[in-house]
Structures are given as structure tokens and as C-alpha cells.
């Protein structure tokens, strides 16, 4: 059995200047739909659940939004939300960072419920990353329950707790994928990823926790790397574009 975990931005769709314009192609949507019929499939993303479900238009999938803090299992499977105690801090941080960046052209602050994204891809200033990072750090002094993570032209602010995409993948393997295996093979002892080979495909720094986890199970992590990009990764393999992701997923559909 394969258990497939897919990031969205930079994996199923190219990175674009405005996050709202990262629209999945109909071909990719159909491939993911076919993949989910062949193998258990989940979308793991920094976007909020409502946004990613509206973009994917595949209600039968399991979704882990807000970097894994908000998990909506496949139809009828319930919902897990980690970090409700941090919501007040997140809303306070968002209000203040919007005010502090209101005069900086190109900055976009995105509310992803359990995380706040401060995008600077459209800022025409080579010092934008450092300057905005400093602003975020100054604001986080008031919110010690939150922390900052890097991304592709974005600072991600989320709860400072031991939960991330890797933990979400672990939870889903145990609660959903293993349950399927246990139902089919009741004589197999319980444990991580019973009979399932986890495959995680993603492009960002926030995916590294998931790469590390699937590697610990001898699973497969695949880093979607831009041609100009060079960074260390815990993934085992590399794909170089969303087109290569599409081709790879089409091949996975054929595995039965």
C-alpha cells in the first residue's frame, strides 16, 4: 500500500506572485483524483483548510492545512485542530504586523488560521527579507507562544509547539492509513505505517519535518526544486518542476 502526501504551492502548482492566483490545472486535479482512487492520498499545505479545499475541489481527500495544525479527514472522518489556545496570539500578531507593514508596498499578510504568512515576493527591495524578518522578530517578543519559520519569499509565524507537517503525517498514517491496514490484516501488530510506504512530495522548508519523518520509516521524500535553488534537504529524491511531479504521479497511478 502507498500513502501519498502532497504539498500544494510549488508542488501541484508553480509558485506565483499572488497566492490567490496559484490555481491548479484541470489536468493536475484529474491526476490527483485518479491517484486518490488508486492509493490513499492527502494534501499537506500551509494554506487554511477552507482555501485549499476550494482550490482542489476534491472533497473526498484528507487535508492537513495550516502546516498540519488543522486536519480534515476524508468524508465522515472528523477533524483535528491543534493549537486553539494560540489563536488569540495569532490574531494579535496579525493585526500588529499588518499595521507595521501597511506602508511597505508589495507586502502581503495572509491569515491561514493557525499560521500567519508574511509574504515579500513582490517587494522591490533586496533587503526586504532581513528587514521584514526583524519586524516579525520584534513583534514576536510580545507573543512568546509563537515562532517564525522561513519559506520561499515568506516568513511563516505559527504556534511555538512541537507540531508541524511531520507530526501531521505521523498522525494520519496512524489514524487513517494504518486503520485501513488493520481492517484488512488484523493479525499484523500495530506500529507506524503498517504495510504502507509513505511518499511525501513538497518544495519548501516547512516540508523538511515531513521529509525527516518519512525517512525515519524508510519512506520516500521528494523535494521539488527550482533549477536555481540549492539547499540541503532531508528528502531522498528530487523533481525539478510541477510538470515532473505530474509525470511522477501518473506513474504512481499505475502501481497496484
Structural description of this entry:
A hairpin with a 3-residue loop joins strand 8 (146-150) and strand 9 (154-159). This protein has helices at residues 26-38, 49-56, 87-100, 128-140, 165-184, 208-216, 242-253; strands at residues 2-6, 40-44, 62-65, 70-72, 79-81, 108-111, 116-119, 146-150, 154-159, 197-202, 220-224, 237-239. The protein has an 8-stranded mixed beta sheet, with helices on both faces. It is an alpha/beta fold.
Fraction of residues in H or I helices: 25-40%
Oligomer: single chain
Task: Characterize the biggest β-sheet.
Answer: 8 strands, mixed
Given the C-alpha coordinates, what overall shape results? globular
Number of strands: 12
The helix/strand series, from N terminus to C terminus, equals: EHEHEEEHEEHEEHEHEEH
Query: Structural class of the secondary structure composition?
Result: alpha/beta
Low-confidence stretches: 181-193
Helical region count? 7
Strand content: 15-25%
Radius of gyration: 18 Å
- Major beta sheet, strand line-up: 5-4-3-2-1-10-11-12
The whole-number mean of residue pLDDT values reads 90
- Could you tell me how far the N terminus lies from the C terminus, measured between alpha carbons in angstroms? 8 Å
Task: Offer a few descriptive terms.
4-stranded antiparallel beta sheet, alpha/beta, 256 residues, 8-stranded mixed beta sheet
